[in-house]
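Proline iminopeptidase structure dump, as promised
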Amino acid sequence: MSAGTLRTMYPEIEPYESGMLDVGDGHRVYYERVGTPGEKPAVFLHGGPGGATNADYRRLFNPDRYDVLLFDQRGCGRSTPYASLEANTTWHLVADIERLRKLVGIEKWLVLGGSWGSTLAMAYAQTHPERVSELVLRGVYTLTRAELDWYYQFGVSEIFPEKWERFIAPVPEEERGDMIGAYRKLLTSDDPAVQVEAAKAWTRWEGETITLLPEPSFSSKYGDAHYALAFARLENHYFIHDCWMEDGQLLRNAHRLQGIPGAIVHGRYDMPCPVKNAYLLHKAWPDASFSLVEGAGHATTEPGILDQLIRATDRFAI
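structure tokens r here:
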């Protein structure tokens, strides 16, 4: 392979095992395992909150070298109850990851998370550093108030004014000073139709601003009512509660990652997750390599980001 050749996804692969794990609180979490049983264990954490796993995420790992568990977090994907906000916090999810590790029966595993998945990966690794063999983060989101305001109040609004106009349209003008709070009312309305329309607007805003260049398939996926309902309700639910973390907590606690080998992959023009925070994490966690991808936004599927992610999982496949 020449130095200039971009790595692409591994061939499609089907799970060799799947099931539903009862994690308590009325929640059942869908999980699947792919790759080769007994090879290097890994867990993949999807974005959102409220996203889901998909077949492409399986393809970030060499199936001959890895045994990967993927799962849909509480309330989304194939997990049940769908779009539920009850007993659904960052720390419930951290506990679920541990339940899944014990289900697999391994001592530690590589953890890969992107966007919100990077937030959850950091929270898990800082809580259970002894359970993490390596940590791969894409589109680092440290969940500070400044990051939330940048994306949902003022910042990205200046770069995508026509898309921002559509995002604020469902919200009365007098409530636009707190878009997350205003959407909370809509997404928890007693009227299901109001919930759905708000969910589609919230989710489309993200789908249309996460890539450097427009990606029509993202707009249609994120505009799907069923997908949008869990994505928007859960994302808003987490963000209005600051994900049950103190402002700046993940960066302050980066010292807990000391000794964990890792990789940080971030697009220069990542709109939801400004590169500054990935850079600060890089400085606080010298055990991780830092790949700043020029000509890329936020999405896993952007060529430069995908290339660096697969190089990272290949490097750690030992």
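The mean pLDDT is 96.
lmk if u need the other ones
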